[in-house]
Fold this sequence. Notes:
This protein has 450 residues and is α/β, with parallel strands linked by helices.
Amino acid sequence: MGQAHFSHALKVDPHICFGCSRCMVSCPTEAIRIKKGKAVIYEDRCVDCGECYRSCPVHAIYIKQDDFEKIHMFSHKIALVPHVFFGQFPSQFTQNDIKNAILGAGFTDVVEVEQSVPFLIEQINKYVKKHAEDKPIISSFCPAIVRLIQVKFPSLTSNILLLKPPLDITAYNTRKRLVDQGIDNSDIGLFYITPCAAKIAAIKSPVGEEESQIDGVINMDTLFNRTFTYLSNNKNKMEINREYSKLNFRSRRWPLTEGESKYIKGNNFAIDGIHNVIDFLEKIEDDEVPGVDYLELRACIESCVGGVLLTTNKFLIAERIKNNNDEPEVIKVQNFIHDKEYLESHIAVNKVEPRNIMSLDDNIEKAMQKLTTISDLMKILPQTDCSACGAPNCNALANDIANNESTIEQCIFIQKNMEAENKLKPEESYEILSDIWGKNKFSKYKNLKK
Ligand code: SF4
Ligand code: SF4
């Protein structure tokens, strides 16, 4: 495939991968192939949804994060923590305890990402009213969904909400507040504690923005382990004891399914799980669901509590968050906002462009030729989608052949036929298959008796 357009956090460790192909089969954008017995991610097709990470039985797929020690490059080390983080801890620990334990792990302050939610809800409602002609407006909250639309539903990119998500607004607000207090900008380090790979990718190569305000990303499981250790070591008395205010109900619910759609006026849908989202977007593209104002779409089942980097069962965390009946002194929009004018002038993002990686060629003529090749190949290929060729299905193999990345002999049905017609020697077939699945996959059959 062509070069990568975006950075990705998901990587395959070839020393662990044994080429079982589970990841390839689970990938919703057909971004994985098996080559020389190992999974290979085509980076220009990947949307960082994390489905491959979930499906690998040996944890050969990992999420590359920043080194935790990077926080010490700044005198002001701010942890930007999504609310789902707190739902992972047993109820014996209060949120205040957990925030103090994050300080104990090395940060100098903790800011909850969803602080900006009341401000954002106000802005989204204004936006939806103003952009009636672009309906349905599609939420920009889940970065895997934004990338999915760019890759698989390019005609819907103009429906994406062009406002920053809570993380970016909170980052802008936090940095401005500290700078206005007289702190040098270069001394401020904002670190996001991520529940998933998609957010890392969005920070490292933001869509619709030149650069991110975030200085680093720490995987949520890493901070959970450090925080839990601190809490365990300070069972009787917390060494650090700062008082933090709590989020209101709407802000706490935002990262859950329906946390967003419920508070936007109009006829809204909330869909979670990337395969459900794909099904639904196909219907939207075909105009099968008329009259929708706003779509909350999240790649993970149960939204952010289903992120791959959480350590506790997603349904349990969702219940803990929903059952928390605290309605503290509501953090009013004006309480959160340090400089409303500044935030309003920074909340918009640029138009999201389609990523035409699914299109076959920039040159229309060549693209048409490739399309004809694929259509011709699909008449020959067996349509069994057996994946023995190292591609997820016959159509993906046809695409790869049209892009000169595979050959028709990789299909075992065609191989056998060519052998029968003396167009291919058995040892050549063996070479082709072992090039896909790795030589060691075949060595054990050497002395097999009939
Ligand atoms: S992160 Fe998602 S899109 Fe990317 S390779 Fe894995 S399954 Fe495919
Ligand atoms: S699921 Fe993918 S990465 Fe994991 S062992 Fe199988 S082929 Fe390799």
